[in-house]
Amino acid sequence: MLFPTSGVRMNSAMDDMNLIQQTQRHHLVVREIGEEIDLEIGAGEDDPSFGSTTLIGAPMRESSVEEHGESKQMGMISQLPNDAQDMSKTQQGKRKKKVVKRWREEWADTYKWAYVDVKDGTPRIFCSVCREYGRKHRRNPYGNEGSRNMQMSALEEHNNSLLHKEALRLQMASKDKIVVDKPVYVKGSILEATLKRDPHEVEFIQAVQEAVQALERVIAKNSRYINIMERLLEPERMIVFRVSWVDDRGGTCVNRGFRVQFNQSMGPCRGGIRFHPSMNLSVAKFLGFEQTLKNALSPYKLGGAAGGSDFDPKGKSDNEIMRFCQSFMSEMYRYLGPDKDLPSEEMGVGTREMGYLFGQYRRLAGHFQGSFTGPRIFWSGSSLRPEATGYGLVFFAQLMLADMNKELKGLRCAVSGSGKIAMHVLEKLIAYGALPISVSDSRGYLVDEDGFDYMKISFLRDIKAQQRSLRDYSKTYARSKYYDEAKPWSERCDVAFACTSQNEIDQSDAINLVNSGCRILVEGSNMPCTPEAVQILRKASVLIAPAMAAGAGGVVAGELELNHECSLMHWSPEDFESKLQEAMKQTYQRAMKAATDFGYQKESPEALVHGAVISAFLTIAQAMTDQGSI
C-alpha cells in the first residue's frame, strides 16, 4: 500500500517501474510527495463523468476534456491557449490522464487503501483490499484532486462496490491473520537514492527507514538536514577482501572479510567485528550506521564502524580460529589504529578471537599501540569490559522504570540469547532483585519458572562452554522446560531483553509480547524488531529502549579501557560500575531531552526511540557542517 510523497521525480517510465518494484519489495509506505504518474486509460475504461472532471493542480498544457463534460469545464478551457484546446480535442485512441498525487494532509485517510503497481507495463493505482483498478470499481476513485465532496463520493462508491465488499469480507473472515500496515516513510529523495543505489541491501535499507522516520520532525523543521542525511548514508570507506586460511586437514578455505568505516566526523572509528555465516556488506553497513549513531549519542565523541566475516567459528578448533584471525588481520591491520579505527567484540567474536586478532595486528604494525576492546584483563585495562553492555542494558531499564516510579525488584524478565550479553543481563537482574526466567539459543528457548540464580547461571555457562544444548539444563532442574523451534516471547513477563540478532522479533512475536503483559522492551542487539513488530508494540504502548541508547555500555567501557588514566591503574568493579551508571544516565537524559524538544510526550512509546536518533543525528550533523562538504 503506497501513499503519495512529495518531491520525487522520475526520469523515465522504467525508473517509475523499478522504484515501485523496489518499494513493494521493502514494503514501503510513501507519503507527502507531489509525483505525477501517467495512467494509460483506454476508451470507456472509466466512468466518463468522473474522467471529465477538472484535474486541479495539473499543468494547464496537460489538461484535456471530454465532449460530454464541456459545459462543466468551460471556465478552465477558456484559460487554455487555442493550440492547446485544439490538441485536446484531436486526441484519439488511448488518452493520458495526469493523476496528480499532491493530496492534502487532511485527506490522507481517503486514500489509505490505495497503492501503486504496474499493469501491462504502466503504473496504475490499485485498491489494497481488492487488488483491482479502474472500471472494476464502477468508476475510477483514484482520479484527481477535485473537491472534498467528490473525493468522498468516489470513496463511498468504491467501498459500496460488490467486488470490494467481497474482498473485504474474505479479509475479515480470517480470524487468525492480523492485518498490519507496514509503514516506512520516505522523505523527499533520501530513501529513494538509497533504494536506487543499493536495492538489495535489505538490512541497511531497514535501518535507514527507521532513522528517516525518527527524523521526520527534524527534517520538517530544517530542510538543510536532507542533504546532510544523504551524505551520512554513504559510508566514508568500505573494505571488502578475501580471507584465505588453512584448516586442520591442510585444506585451503576462503571467506570474505568486511570493514565499513561509516563516519569519522566525530572522531576515530569504534565498532564491532562479527563472525557469522550471515555476514555480508548489507549487514556491515547496517551495523556501521547504527554504531555511528550509538557512538554519537554516548558521552564520548567517536566515529562509527563495523565489519567481520562470513566465517563461522562454531565447530572450529582453536588453531583453525587462530589461523583465520591472523589471515583476516593481515589485510585489515593497515586500516586500524587508535587514531583511525579500533574494533571490538561482536557476535561470534569473544576474548579468544580478539586476542588472536590483536596479536597479529601488533606483529604487523610493529608496536603495541593501544589495544582492541575486549582482550583479557591481565594485558588490558578495565576489569568489567565483557560485562559492560549487559550491565548497561539493566541500568537503562532501571532508569526507565524510575521515571515511572517503579523498580526492577520483583519483576519477571524474559531474556533472549545465551551469549555474554544475555548472561550479564541475568547477573545484574538478579542483583536488582528481578526474576529472570528465560534464555535461548538458535534451536529454541529455556524457561525456568523459579527464575535463575547465580548458581544456575554458572551451570548455564558450563553448558555453553562445552557446546551442549540448553536442553541439558532441564535435566537438572525439574521446574524448567526447553521448547524446540520457539522464542521466549510468549512467556508472561513485565520486561523483555532482546539480546540475539537483528529482526529476532517479528509480527507474531510482538503480539505474543503484548499478550504476555510486557510493558518494556530493552534492545540488547541492534534492530531486533521488524517494522511490523515495532508498529504493534507502539499501538500497545509498550515502551522500547533503543539499542543505540541502551547498548551504549560497550562504547563507554571501550573508551575507559583506552583512556590514559585507565592504562595506568586497574579499575575496581565498584568504580567501573559507578562510571558506567553515570554514562548510561547521561545517554538516557540526552535521548529524552531531544524527544521532548521535538514535541514527543515523555510517556510516548516513540519518545526514546526517536529522541535517541534525533540527538545522535544533530550531533553528527553539526560536526559534518563545521567540517564542510568532505
From TrEMBL:
NCBIfam families: PRK09414.1. The keyword Protein biosynthesis does not apply. GO terms for molecular function: glutamate dehydrogenase (NADP+) activity. Belongs to the Glu/Leu/Phe/Val dehydrogenases family. PANTHER family: NADP-SPECIFIC GLUTAMATE DEHYDROGENASE 1-RELATED (PTHR43571:SF1). This is glutamate dehydrogenase (NADP(+)). One of its GO terms (cellular component) is cytosol. Its EC number is 1.4.1.4. Residues 382-628 form the Glutamate/phenylalanine/leucine/valine/L-tryptophan dehydrogenase C-terminal domain. Keywords: Oxidoreductase. It holds the Pfam family zf-C17orf113. GO terms for biological process: glutamate biosynthetic process. InterPro entries: Aminoacid_DH-like_N_sf, Glu/Leu/Phe/Val/Trp_DH, Glu/Leu/Phe/Val/Trp_DH_C, Glu/Leu/Phe/Val/Trp_DH_dimer, Glu_Leu_Phe_Val_DH, NAD(P)-bd_dom_sf, Znf_C17orf113. SUPFAM superfamilies: Aminoacid dehydrogenase-like, N-terminal domain, NAD(P)-binding Rossmann-fold domains. The keyword Ion transport does not apply. It is an enzyme of class 1 (oxidoreductase).
